[in-house]
Amino acid sequence: MSKIAVVYWSGTGNTEQMASMVSEGAQSAGAQVSLFTAAEFSADSVDSYDALAFGCPSMGSEQLEECEFEPMFSACLDKLNGKKVGLFGSYGWGDGEWMRNWVDTCKGAGAVLVSDGVICNGAPDGDAEADCKALGSALA
Length: 140
Hints:
The radius of gyration is 13 Å and the shape is globular. By secondary structure, it is of the alpha/beta class. It starts with a strand and ends with a helix. β4 (84-91), α3 and β5 (112-113) form a beta-alpha-beta unit. It has helices at residues 14-28, 69-77, 97-108, 126-139, and strands at 3-8, 32-37, 51-55, 84-91, 112-113, 118-121. 36% of the residues lie in helices and 22% in strands. Strands 1, 2, 3, 4, 5 and 6 form a 6-stranded parallel β-sheet that branches.
């Protein structure tokens, strides 16, 4: 049984909903899942998991949330080489540039991305729910 951490930051609740859907998909595929907010997770925990899903909405000019999520994620980055990783998040404007940049950052660190980043505009709908569950399943 694989052990997966789903780590997220959410301002409006949309990315939190996505995190729950990713967790559900991983559990349905037989994984043991732990759900964390960005404030509850640290780089010291990365090695305890077989795979990680990180979720953060687009903020400002299409960037990761800067106060809690980005510092936590940056601290984890050096430990992602060879690790299975999935990315997800919601946005309200733009075209998903923050996710493309985030994917490139993870690839540059040697992470093994299990799928394209999962994004949705606003609250997750049926398509986003299916994509989130598929992401969780791919991590498992």
